[in-house]
Amino acid sequence: MMSENCLVCRQVTKSYGKKEVLKGVDLTIEPGHIYGLIGRNGVGKTTLLSILTGQNRAGAGEITYNGQPVWENETALSALCFSRELSPTILFGQNTLKAKEYLKSASCFYPNWDAAYADFLIKEFGIDKNKKICKMNKGMMSLVTITIALASGAPITILDEPVAGLDVYMRDRFYALLLEEYARSNRTFILSTHIIEEAANVLEEIIILNDGVVRLKENTQDLIDSCLYVNGLDEVVDRAVSGYERLNTEQMGRNKMVCIRLKPGQSFPTEQYRGELTVSAVPLQKIFVYLTRQAGEENGYASFNDHA
Amino acid sequence: MAMLLSMIMRNVKNDVRIAVKTVGSTALVMVFFIVYGQLSGNPGFFSIAWTLFSYLVPFVILFQFPGIYFGIALSMGTTRRAAFIGLQVLKVVVAFACSLMVALGIVCNNLLSGMPAASSAEGMFTMFGYGLLAASVGDFMGFFSHHVGGKLGMVFLVAVCTICGGVFGGTIGVMGTDGMLPIIQMFTMPLWVFLLAVVVSCVLSGLSYWLFVRRYAVR
User: In terms of CA atoms, which chain A residue is nearest residue B155?
Assistant: First the structure.
């Protein structure tokens, strides 16, 4: 039975001209989780997120929140926050709006806006409220976006590449603040990110968007646990991995490394091959790369030498 | 319905905040051109033209600001219809404020010249109608220039303001300092024609604005 306050997306499509970006996306966002939406550049992550929050219209399909359509629905939209990347240009040229104007607008529109928390974040991030957006670097713009998202108090809060341009310290600070806010409020967060390894510790569920559809939606730890590198002599590896789904194969001489994915209930007999094979975990980033390969990329990246 | 009203009020609150912010800067522009026009002696074509231009530009600037801020409002969870209705409410509020300013100006002028203080209800009403007209043209032009986009949109906007200012101002320049009265009388005689024009222009500009807005996609 579906929980209340779910954001549900059914068979959503979207095209820009002749290019079909979303080809029938089905997705359910349940309350009280931190989701990571990952996908290659241009796959339609921002498009999907803007459709989920009524900022863009779907070509077909439906989006509902708590059973009600999201499009032009004040009740549904009051529960959603999509804090998107700020732009240094707007309308007629440079974006000369100041950070404080965005924050004031946010305080007008978000019914659960937490002004005290916003002030805390502004101090924490060192944001100069009187600085014009066009004068900010990418990192500072990201921090303004993060402040709006975290202080919005929206039950479902979406951040589109929030750590773009942030240094390592600020990225770490952001993840800590996100977890703190999540523990405090149990809000639902959806992060669209390319920096997968860092975010892996924060994300409860991974959603991979590929080829216009949701390729995978799974618990992060379960996904990591289900993938293994099996490394050793090629004939031993081939014998050991037969019957398992292969995500990737690399061979150098007689040494072969295969990435396998275990089905639910399946396991790999590591003890049986002790001394012959090395079995290790696969980083989430690598799992993403293997799962989102395009046709023709199965044998790895193209090399300039192949064209010479 | 309650949520729609609540969201409309949030839009009005945000738009009024933006409008008040621009009033100070646009008022300075108006004062500069009015003073320049008066100090330049017998008003000729260009001084009056610029004076009238200064009256027109604030309306247009005022009402394209919500157009600029429209995308921001949408990205913060408002619906298009609430943003649209909020802007129409703002137009009425600003037009009403302009008519009050006219009344205040007339009263001050009469007091300073020793005449019995009097307000011109007809002048106020005319100014209210003129304010709505200018605002309707303003928001249509603002959004149209947004639709055209970029520097070309800005050039279009400035060109229209300059031409309108020049036409009005030039007319006043030919007719002399009391040239404002015939212009106002054009709008007030007969009153029902003026009112009809106001209503029709508000409806048409609102409708065309809504046609732009209803499927607007935030990028």
Answer: A92
